[in-house]
Amino acid sequence: MYNLKPLVHFPDPVELTPTMYGMKNIYSTNFSSSVVTRPLQSLPNILEQKSNSEVEDLRKRQEGILKQLNFLKEQMLSLREELSKGAPCQKFPDEMNNNLSETISQKDICVKPQWNGVAGEIVISVSPEHPPYSLLALNRLWADVLRLNVVCHTHSSVVSLPPHLSCFSRLSLTNSPNVQARLIWTSMGPDCELAVSPVSHSRIRGEINVLRFLHRSIYGFSDPIDDVQLDHILDVCHRLAHSHTLRDKQMNVRALNALLGRSRWLGGDNMSVADVAAWSVIKSTPGVELSQNMTRWNTLCAQAFDIGGA
């Protein structure tokens, strides 16, 4: 049907090696066709032809891509060298240092809560059926570095708020806040959502993940062992919040009891975000039975956070 040019021209006949079975050469059959074929000797050798403009343009594009890849490689190598040296901790401004206490019982702080260069503007969407009680305790947990001011809004999808949620409005009376938060009560699933910037920031889903994000934003990464232990406790709290059966809930409560052991707090001798996360999840999970040790710990949390009737 079509007459194609040979890719490689062989001036001499090709000697075939002997084979086990001989087959008839199908190309030697004479076909009746009106197309006049040219002899092989008259066809140009493609290997001897010079590259046309399209091939030259393709070569230039390839060279440009290789230069860009080399540039990106140099940037990644320089970035890896900077990270291996370790970035220095940012210092607090003088006006904040005056407000900090002389001795901080928790870990040393490397950065203050700041995202995209704008300190303290976050939006949290949450369902009234699954309130994030942990927000009520953050100002007491991180009193030296975080002063959270929460302004509550009610979406049109919510007809009315239960009376026990009025405790969240007290967070709007925070003096000299450094983090402004808008709490939007809306009709949604059990996982709340935090957004720093709707354009350049992905939403963080789940109360435990929100606490994890806030903790990392304030303290960064310090001791690897402590970070792994904290993540493990937060993971257990996350599983407890998403357990569907009473058996699974009770199993995760027993896991928290084992992690507490004989310690005063889940994080050891000092109260940490792990205690806030576990306390909030247990408060939102009715029907679970607490051991004597966990009951004592739960009472300590209520006294430390001073929630009252919340």
The first-to-last residue Cα distance is 86 Å
User: Can you give the helix content as a percent range?
Assistant: 25-40%
Strand order in the largest sheet: 2-3-1-4-5
**Mean pLDDT across all residues, rounded?**
77
* Strand runs, count: 5
Features:
310 residues; alpha/beta; Glutathione S-transferase Yfyf (Class Pi), Chain A, domain 2; 5-stranded mixed sheet; 8 helices; 5 strands; 8% strand
Describe what you observe in this structure.
The structure is a single chain. α5 (224-241) runs parallel beside α7 (273-283). Strands 2-3-1-4-5 form a five-stranded mixed β-sheet, covered by helices on one side. The protein is elongated and about 100 Å long. It has helices at 53-85, 94-99, 135-141, 207-219, 224-241, 246-260, 273-283, 292-305, and strands spanning 121-126, 148-154, 179-185, 193-195, 204-205. The protein is α/β, with parallel strands linked by helices and 310 residues long. It has a domain at 121-305: Glutathione S-transferase Yfyf (Class Pi), Chain A, domain 2. The protein contains eight helices and five strands.
